[in-house]
Amino acid sequence: MAANDLVAPLTEAPERPTVTLSATLGEGDRLDRVLMRAGVGRADANAAATMVAQAVPLDSIAAGTRIALTLGRRPDRTVARPLEALDLRARFDLGLALMRTAGGLAMHRKPIAIDATPLRIQGLVGSSLYRSMRAAGVPAKAVESYIKALATRLSIGRDVRAADSFDLIIERQRAATGETQIGELLFAGIDQGRRKVQLVRFGPDGAESERERDGAGASRTDGWFDANGQTERRAVSGLPVSGRITSSFGLRVHPLLRFTRMHKGLDIGAPYGTPIHAMTDGVVAFAGRTGGYGNFVKLTHGGGMASGYGHMSRIAVSSGTRVRQGQVIGYVGSTGLSTGPHLHWEVWKNGTAINPRAVSFAGVAQLSGASLRAFKAKVATLLAVRPGG
Predict the structure, then answer these.
(1) In angstroms, what CA-CA distances link 134 with 139, 140, 171?
(2) Model pLDDT for residues 363-381, shown as the tens digit of each residue
(3) How far is CA 148 from CA 145, 219, 236, in A?
(4) Bridge partners, residue 174, by sequence
(5) CA 149 → CA 186, 212, 224, 320, distances in Å?
(6) Which of 240, 236, 206 is nearest to 220 (CA)?
(7) What is the pLDDT at residue 11?
(8) N or C: lower Cβ tally within 10 Å for the chain?
(9) Helix/strand/coil percent split, the chain, to 5
(10) What is the dihedral of CA 215, 216, 222, 223, to 10 degrees?
(11) What secondary structure letter does DSSP report for 258?
């Protein structure tokens, strides 16, 4: 029915007493800014962020985290609504709730029970190792890690047969709320009947001593070890850069100086900007500009071995840092005495230049003492995991 004389028109519609909404934390975003964009006042947003930071580092909260908010009644439309409640998953194993009390905002922690039993998957290689593993439920990232690990011991294309059995164990966390997180590959195995390969990831979070991890010039022992605690580190390729050898080790006529002198390394021609990789683990002894070498990096590898990389267009490491096998240390250029883009690569043994092609960059690391005992315990724990558990 139509309004009559008893109806008094309102100057403005009344607001709801509370508003319930949600916000999402973006990549590189800040919690207080997310809250303010959702309508929370600056003071409440800062107070809420400060309280959450007491439980977890704010930058550790994953992008995409959803935040449930309840905003209360405000005295007038000129001010922001007060924050009455906030709820978020601050960590996989921890939820946080903020509630307004008589004394202001109060935080309540909600621990979430986590089952950290790893996931073990086994199956036949069949016509395609990759497709068989994916069909068995192995995540793509784990398949790639598995293949890279096995490639240090055998040729995937030549040595693996359809009748072989793959076996791998992956980090897994299952929350009581139903969510699952898959982590790194822990174990990579293959049973070929006549031969069984079992590789276990073991790093500095194990029982290695500080001396084993950080000894001057020593290679770090983290990586893939066989069940006996031994690992073989192989060079990623025969050369530190993808290209062709344009000048070999030995006497030659210098292309710019035009007289014969000893060429103490290899020149490898490659396009400008091609990545240059460390051939094996080491420490950066020098990174900078030096004479005819132009932009130059020198690595020490222990055992009296060292290597140098010259004429770079750009250097990607700094002096004193540790580099890993295959890590990019710079990019091909033509700085210094150079006729075009290429890498000058030198290797020294006890200070004397030697032919880089005569050096094997494969090395063997063997665990011992407390490291070996911790490793054996880890192997036993992993092998006790039941498939599909």
Answers:
(1) 7, 7, 17
(2) 555 677 888 888 889 999 9
(3) 5, 20, 11
(4) 115, 180
(5) 10, 22, 7, 29
(6) 206
(7) 75
(8) N
(9) 20, 40, 40
(10) -150
(11) -
